[in-house]
Amino acid sequence: MKLFWKLFCSMVIVTVLACSLGGYFLIDEQLRSSVEREAAQLYEINDLLRYALHREMGSFPSAAYPEDVAKRAEKVEVTSGGAAVPFRISDETGERQGGQGSLPVQAEPLVSQLDDSQRGWMLQRVGERTYLHAASALRLVGGTLYLENCRDVSVLFAARGEQYQNFFTFMLALVAAVGVVSLLVSYLIFRPLACLSAASRRLAEGALEERVAVDSDDELGQLSQDFNTMAERLEAQVQTLTDVARRQEEFIGSFAHELKTPLTSIIGYADLLRSRPATAQQVQESAGYIFREGRRLEALSQKMLELIVLDRRDFPLREVSMPDFLALVGGTLGPALEELDIRLTIQAEPSRQRLEPDLMEMVCLNLLDNARKAMEGGGTICLEGRAEPGGYCIQVIDNGKGIPPGELSRVTEPFYMVDKSRARAQGGAGLGLALCQRIVALHGGSLELESTWGEGTTVRVHLKGGMEI
């Protein structure tokens, strides 16, 4: 049985029991008081009969015999309410010895309980009537007689029966009223619990934003508040775990993406040394690129971990000569572009900028790599740098396939790819431009894209002279 119905049934049962016991007790107590009043009046009449008998005999001398008393009793008459009061003189065995009129009750049940110094009363049922029977002892020399009188009290019991019937009707109405009130009270009490239960189920299904209304300051209101507090903390913890998982996923995808560029450079220069005759200067330059890309790869893993997973924003800046920096970036992809019959041109205006070289090189290599992927059967890529008021602009221009106008605004979203099949075939994950935009924002700059479908794309990186912390 549900707790709702347990509470409902308990309220109804307790109310019915309390009212029933109280009502029946009051009705019976009223009957008892009425019977006792009738008994007191019956005693008074018995005393009058005793007094009248005393006057008839003059006294109850010790020498009086029961036969004399019984004989004189025939002449005694006492009226009550305009009618003669019937009475009876009985001996110790309950046999009638004298009196006036007849009593419908038997003497023996009462007189057998009395001794010669007592008086008492009892109720006797005769047919459909109920009588109150009283008796008192008359001590005589020759024995003890009992003076009896009675009164019909059936009306008292009839009144009690009517009261029982009325009380039963009242109890039916009370049960109905208590049932309605109990349903209402149970509903008001359990409605917050039902809301909590429903909210808990929705929370378990993943609706972490689920909250319940707090309508009171009682225990149920406190329970609702505690639920909301728990849900808020759970949502915050799940969001934290989700962010950590997202950053880890982004780190893995970005690192796998960025790993290919230095590896491509290393493999390209190593293949160049292996497959072609080279001068000592060419060997030294190729070995220098291989060594540099190896060291950059080592540093790149740690910096990407700090940038993506740990969300670090305070990387130290170094002042860098932009022509030398862009020349170094362009030289990294030299063998890979040459193999695809792609010509790379580099033009840079003199300037010195404060930046994090490894992260900014990652940006430039991503832009060059995207330009490379956009070309089929050769082409031209221009890597340019020019000073502008308050900073420096790096731009990559290609004459590849370009970006459809409807997708230009989405290419910086994480995991978004314009041509998914071609991007996956070339090892793309859709994280390059999103990561570039994040790194440029850390430098206080902005990323700008212009593209014409079928003609080419221009990407500009506007640097503002330093990194925002």
Description of the molecule:
By secondary structure, the chain is α+β, with helices and mostly antiparallel strands. It has helices at 3-57, 66-73, 108-111, 154-204, 219-275, 280-309, 322-332, 334-339, 357-373, 420-425, 432-442, and strands at residues 79-80, 83-84, 87-90, 96-100, 119-126, 129-140, 143-152, 318-321, 342-348, 352-355, 379-388, 391-398, 446-452, 456-463. Strands 4-3-7-6-5 form a 5-stranded antiparallel β-sheet, with helices on one face. Strands 9-11-12-14-13 form a 5-stranded mixed β-sheet. It has a two-stranded antiparallel ribbon with strand order 1-2. β13 and β14 (456-463) form a beta hairpin. The longest helix is centred in the middle third of the chain and has 57 residues, at 219-275. Residues 420-431 have low confidence and may be disordered.
